[in-house]
Each structure stands twice: as structure tokens, then as C-alpha cells.
Amino acid sequence: MSCWMPGCPALSMCRGLAALPIACLERAKDLKTRLGILIHKPELGHKTGSSSKLQLGSRRRDSSREVLEWRESFDQLLKSKSGVNAFHTFLKTEFSEENLDFWLACEDFKKTRSKTKLASKANRIFEEFVQSEAPREVNIDHETREITRKNLSGATSACFNEAQAKTRTLMEKDSYPRFLKSASYQDMSRQAAGRGSSKRSHT
């Protein structure tokens, strides 16, 4: 149907159709988004299947055992990634997390193989944690501080050993016992013990 006359209804219809593709595109985008959500829903449902639930249950049992092992020794706590995270959170409440951060930095430092990187890392750790008035100065005696300073002149993977050992002892004797008595750890250990007893009652 065509029309050349002004005011013809067909002409108005043609003008309306000219705007249609833009509206269609908008609708198509909206439908695509909705379809995408619907398509992904079965995958989400699949992830919460029986095998995933078994794996989750296994992880919970492992983590429960881990939490209870933290009270056996300070070493057990430091061996556990989640234990280190929980201890770090506790130290933040006492404003002494720099001790653990320094210990972790030293552990990472010992793994460095490049001599160039060893020297630059050593200086960075010393400036951040060890030197007097350092931004995150750890609580070590003057003698240990000076020994560590001298070690920097020929940096080796062992140059922080003494300072790290002193910091570790401080945490083990001072912060660690308080962590075990803290409300946060007591709550975690109760939950862990509860999960353990629940597991035994079902076997």
C-alpha cells in the first residue's frame, strides 16, 4: 500500500513503522537478559546437588577438627591458614597484628632465591617492622634490632631469624593464650565440638 497524498493514513502508518526497529531492539535486549538469567538457573541448581553437599560436609568436618587443633599448640595454629586468619583478626582487636605480619613477612622472605630481591626485601621488611620508629615497629629489644641491622649488609635468608624468633616467642607466650580464652575462639571451638559430636551420633 502506498500513498503520496498529504494526511493519508498510510503515510502515518509508514512513519510509525520507521520507529519500530529501535523499539524492537530495546525489547530484544530485555528478553536476552531475561533468557540469560533463566538459562543459568539450572547450573545454579546443579551446584547444590548431593555431591556438592557431601563435599561441603567434608570441608566442615575438616575445618572443625582444625579449629580444635589450634589449642594443642601455637605451631598447630600457625600451620593452619584459617587459624592464622582468625589469630590475625584477634590481634587487630589488641592493636598488635604487626607481630604476626612481621613473622609472615619473614616466612615469605626465606623463600626468596634471587640475591637482588633478597637485599631489597630485607631492607623493606627492616624499614617497615624493625628499625626504631618504624611504621609498624615490632616489640624487640635494642640488641636484637642492632644485630638485624648488621645482618642487612650481607643479606641472607637467615638475617631476620633472631628478630623473628623473639616476635614468635612474644606471640606464643602473650597473645596466643589470650586468643584461646577469647570469646571468638571459644565460640568457634564450641561450634566445632558440636559438629564433631553430631557426626559421631550419626555413625
UniProtKB/TrEMBL annotation:
GO terms for cellular component: membrane. It is a lipid-anchor. GO terms for biological process: negative regulation of signal transduction. GO terms for molecular function: GTPase activator activity. It holds the Pfam family RGS. Residues 73-189 form the RGS domain. Residues 182-203 are annotated as: Disordered. InterPro entries: RGS (IPR016137), RGS_sf (IPR036305), RGS_subdom1/3 (IPR024066), RGS_subdomain_2 (IPR044926). Residues 1-19 form the signal peptide. The keyword Zinc does not apply. PANTHER family: REGULATOR OF G PROTEIN SIGNALING (PTHR10845), REGULATOR OF G-PROTEIN SIGNALING 16 (PTHR10845:SF187). Regulates G protein-coupled receptor signaling cascades. Inhibits signal transduction by increasing the GTPase activity of G protein alpha subunits, thereby driving them into their inactive GDP-bound form. Plays an important role in the phototransduction cascade by regulating the lifetime and effective concentration of activated transducin alpha. May regulate extra and intracellular mitogenic signals. This is Regulator of G-protein signaling 16. It comes from Cettia cetti. The lineage of its organism: Eukaryota, Metazoa, Chordata, Craniata, Vertebrata.
